[in-house]
Automatic annotation (TrEMBL):
One of the GO biological process terms: transcription antitermination
Protein name in UniProt: Nus factor SuhB
Cofactor(s) the record lists: Mg(2+)
Enzyme Commission numbers on file: 3.1.3.25
Pfam families for this protein: Inositol_P
Domain of life: Bacteria
Phylogenetic classification of the source organism: Bacteria, Pseudomonadati, Pseudomonadota, Gammaproteobacteria, Pseudomonadales
Species per Swiss-Prot/TrEMBL record: Pseudomonas matsuisoli
Residues that hold Mg(2+) according to the record: 81, 97, 99-100, 223
Annotated family: Belongs to the inositol monophosphatase superfamily.
Catalytic activity: a myo-inositol phosphate + H2O = myo-inositol + phosphate
Listed GO MF terms: inositol monophosphate 1-phosphatase activity; metal ion binding
PROSITE patterns assigned to the protein according to its UniProt record, in alphabetical order: IMP_1
Amino acid sequence: MIHESTTAAPLDLSARYTAAKCIAQEAANRGMDYYRRREELTVLNKSEDATDVVSVADRDLEDFIRQALTTLFPEDGLLGEERGSEGLDAQCVWVIDPIDGTACFVNGLHNWCVSIGLLVDGEPALGVIADPNHHELFHALKGQGAFVNDSPLKPHKATHVREGLVGVGTTHRPGKAHFLPFLTKLLEEGGMFFRSGSGALMTAYVAAGRLLGYHETRLYAWDCLAGIVMLNEVGGRTNDFLRGNALLEGGPFLAACPGVYEQLEAMTGNWIHEDA
Ligand code: IPD
Ligand code: CA
Ligand code: CA
């Protein structure tokens, strides 16, 4: 007699990893088509913050990514910056920023990327960041390491902020009041700041050892989830970004190489541990 198996099929994370890399790269290539003719795009402001902008490129790329993922993995949930959420109670939830660095994109600055992360049972499990201007694909799968193209990522060995650059960012959303005190302390301790305009890329740069750390007063999950997987894989540190309701509402973010994390954490004050 044949018994029907009651065991659910194992989750195919490696298929999701392969798909995410292809889809992010294809979306980035499509993004380049828009970028080359960006002067034709109508740019809309999403809020009173002059850097909070969007164009048809962001929306079309998110539609492309969502459709590609849904075709392959119809059971998975989706959360994206431009098109919202669906199926958030699924075991796998994709977290998508079709263009991170839109203010750079519309102004002809090359610091933008496509970022796709995946949560499995609420935990960051894979992340892919495609930067077409610099021909870099950052990618990581939990337990399998983190890479830029084929090269493994490695965080900086620094033990003091004087030894390199620290990424920073803020917007006019809540949290900006903490920005200048942080910068002041960073400079007082001999550190120096860097801002690229893409939170996803700055997070990946910490995993790659290009930046010692990165602090942003308020980010959304689609800005940093893919990079968090990379940092987890290489022994970098982050604050408990996803605590509380940060998946939907965002919150303060800190990432750093192990040797300077505590120094930067002290500069942010305890407010980064407060709920979003
Ligand atoms: C923004 C970028 C920027 C950061 C903002 C984000 P967007 O994302 O990551 O670096 O300072 O907080 O909103 O709007 O370009 O996708
Ligand atoms: Ca973003
Ligand atoms: Ca975006």
